[in-house]
Amino acid sequence: MNFADFSRFFKKPLIIIFLLGPFLLSSCIKEKSDPITGKSENEKFEPNSDARARKYADENPIMFFGDRGKKNNNTQNFEFAGNNVLWRATLKTLDFLPIQSVDYAGGIIIYDWYAKDGNSNEFIKVSVQFLSSDLKSDSIKIMAYKKICDNSDKCKNSPVDASFPASIKENIIFTARSLNIEEVKKNKK
Fold it and tell me: Fewer CB in a 10 Å sphere around the end CB: N or C, the chain?
């Protein structure tokens, strides 16, 4: 085939569409995934926050305090947030939110986007930063984000009402105080 035959071949638009069509169509068909986390909608979600935290700790042993991932009798034993009542209260209070990232050493929990069942177009994302291990309201910082998506999956960020992070913080502090009281009663027995 010489150059003249080659150029005549590609001047026929139907042949080009026939040859390149499947490639173009396959690039348009993608699995839906979260643009931030990259997780697909088909991934299984573990509803138990303690199981998610344990799995993350097992996969990333160097990040956590305790035995720092050293094997002891062929098992890994972590003191994952055992002494930090604010950490445990946060996990207990926000156990309905999917965890995206946990860094105990850095003192931050980042939750994944979450939507209530009745409103699947509005999503919230919460991050909790631990500034101190003291049981005070200024020991944690709550950051919340909201995105609203239309039916064509175009999303835009929207401001979150300032009372939302404040109410989360109040619930965490209340839960932490309750956990602290339970520990004191348990230690007195």
Answer: C
Backbone angles phi, psi at 7, to 5 degrees: -70, -35
| 3-state secondary structure at position 134 | coil
Q: What tens digit of pLDDT does each residue of 50-70 get?
A: 777 777 667 665 444 444 444
Region 79-106: mean pLDDT is 83
pTM for this entry: 0.55
Q: Do 91 and 50 form a contact (C-beta atoms < 8 A)?
A: yes
Q: Is the pLDDT of residue 166 over 50?
A: yes
By C-alpha distance, which of 141, 143, 137, 144 is closest to 177?
A: 137
List Cβ neighbours of 41 (8 Å cut-off, separation of 6 or more).
Answer: 31, 32, 33
Q: For the chain, which residues make up each domain, given as ranges?
A: 1-29, 82-188
